[in-house]
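Example for tutorial group B:
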């Protein structure tokens, strides 16, 4: 932290347990799923479902999974790369800026990060949620919580939020470059697997007022980027990477992972897509996960291990993962530009 800093940048990632111990995973899952923007059902029903069913059932299993990706020295991959991103961005921005990292759920908390910035009496704070595509459950939740915390401040500096950067050209070029490290032509098919959302959440940001989207999204969502439609942002990211890589239409599929519960989530589901591709005789898959800017449990375990094993059981041979943006200098340059934009 520099005493010269007059401008603040707050990077916000989703979160990670403090350790792979069941108790820490229990705390993390409870805080995450009790967010009304994540599980958007009435409080009493949400409490009964999260604390009575989901977390008791999933905590131990998730803890075992976290243990497989937890590094003895560096800990959580998400935390490791997020801290690297913070430190590298601080170096790029220099002493005029102070860069903080917070997790929306667990630690370092938004409260602590903002308290550090409050005490510096900065002239401005730029909040960058580390989610390229906007969703109420991610970016919306970050903005909501930041405003809730800051409304108690006696002085409020100029505050701005980055809503989305789903088709930022330099970010897209970084994803594409990471893909090109693999021999793409040697793969039978390319998957673009994004974190899923309940379909009802798409309807809540439908400017037409219809408030009801089909499970595969409106046809227009697949063709044009809309201001707050997560599905349209996922398609925009995919279109941009595909254009950089010059992939033919029959070579790739966009799909969604990590669904929870029995309500309809946006489709096609990654698991169903694996089944369909295996049935067609596809043997080698290359997977991008462009909803994530750092490798994490959803990429390192869910795709490489869970989906990898599932695909092999169906007759496939290999699922390879394109590394996330992590500490790539070109990605750090994207963050620098987003931090300096007015």
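The residue assignment follows.
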């Amino acid at each position: 932290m520099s005493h010269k800093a007059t401008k603040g940048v707050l990077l916000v990632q989703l979160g990670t347990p403090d350790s792979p111990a069941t108790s820490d995973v229990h705390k993390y899952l409870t805080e995450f799923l009790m967010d009304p923007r994540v599980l958007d059902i009435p409080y009493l029903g949400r409490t009964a479902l999260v604390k009575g069913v989901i977390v008791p059932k999933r905590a131990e299993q998730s803890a075992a999974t976290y243990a497989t990706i937890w590094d003895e020295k560096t800990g959580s991959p998400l935390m490791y790369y997020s801290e690297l991103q913070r430190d590298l961005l601080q170096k790029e921005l220099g002493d005029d800026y102070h860069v903080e990292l917070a997790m929306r759920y667990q630690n370092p908390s938004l409260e602590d990060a903002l308290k550090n910035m409050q005490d510096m009496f900065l002239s401005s704070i730029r909040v960058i949620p580390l989610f390229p595509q906007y969703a109420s459950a991610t970016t919306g939740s970050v903005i909501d919580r930041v405003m809730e915390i800051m409304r108690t401040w006696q002085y409020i500096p100029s505050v701005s939020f980055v809503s989305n950067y789903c088709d930022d050209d330099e970010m897209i070029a970084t994803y594409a470059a990471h893909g090109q490290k693999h021999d793409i032509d040697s793969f039978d098919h390319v998957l673009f697997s994004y974190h899923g959302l309940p379909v009802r959440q798409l309807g809540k940001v439908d400017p037409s007022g219809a408030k009801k989207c089909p499970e595969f999204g409106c046809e227009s969502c697949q063709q044009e980027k809309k201001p707050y439609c997560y599905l349209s942002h996922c398609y925009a990211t995919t279109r941009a990477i595909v254009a950089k890589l010059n992939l033919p239409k029959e070579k790739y599929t966009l799909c969604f992972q990590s669904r929870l519960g029995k309500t309809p989530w946006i489709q096609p589901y990654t698991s169903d897509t694996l089944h369909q591709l295996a049935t067609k005789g596809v043997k080698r898959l290359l997977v991008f996960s462009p909803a994530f800017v750092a490798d994490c449990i959803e990429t390192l375990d869910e795709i490489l291990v869970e989906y990898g094993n599932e695909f092999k059981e169906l007759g496939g041979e290999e699922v390879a993962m394109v590394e996330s943006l992590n500490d790539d200098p070109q990605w750090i340059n994207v963050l620098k530009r987003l931090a300096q934009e007015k």
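The first strand starts at residue 7 and ends at 15. Compare this with the pattern of hydrophobic and polar residues in the output above.
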